[in-house]
Amino acid sequence: MDGALSVPVEVRGTIVFAHGSGSGRFSPRNRAVARVLFQAGFATLVMDLLTAEEEEKEMREQRRLRFDVRLLADRVIAAIDWLGSDAMIGDTPAMLGEAPVGCFGASTGAAAALIAAAERPLRVAAVVSRGGRPDLADEALPRATAPTLLIVGGNDPEVIEINRRAQGMLAGEARLAIVPGAGHLFEEPGALEKVAAEARAWFHQHLVRLA
Known about the structure:
alpha/beta
């Protein structure tokens, strides 16, 4: 899988981005959030959850792999394991292997992030969901103990209700943050900045103390 790993001079933690359906490492919204987190001292791994070959087949054959939450979760888990392994290449600092990990998931990627948190409880220290579908994580929710922030737009009532129900099922600390006036994609002026600020504060609270 292709991805972009950005590492600041002093690493407070590493954030793995899990994109949703129809999105990849070039998502302008997730890249904007990643820039804010990088500036706050977090390493960021923004990657495609499908290979180039899978992307091509997805377009040609409508395989709907982007909606295969189990597949996406396995890719996120693989990335988390890679960050803590000896397989990292190039000039990447060894300190990343010891840095606490957070996951930032959007849409179906939020479910993938929560499944990863449930299956790697000793590695994933916090999760943030943006306009997510945490309900798709299903039976993983009661096993996800990482503190989780669910961010939803105020003009997205159906997703608000989905996230509210998921909040009650999560095993760990969970907070629902509603951005007033924002829709599902947070395209309104200032909405994405609010998402980034909320995510930065959440990861700072739950990851920096472990670094």
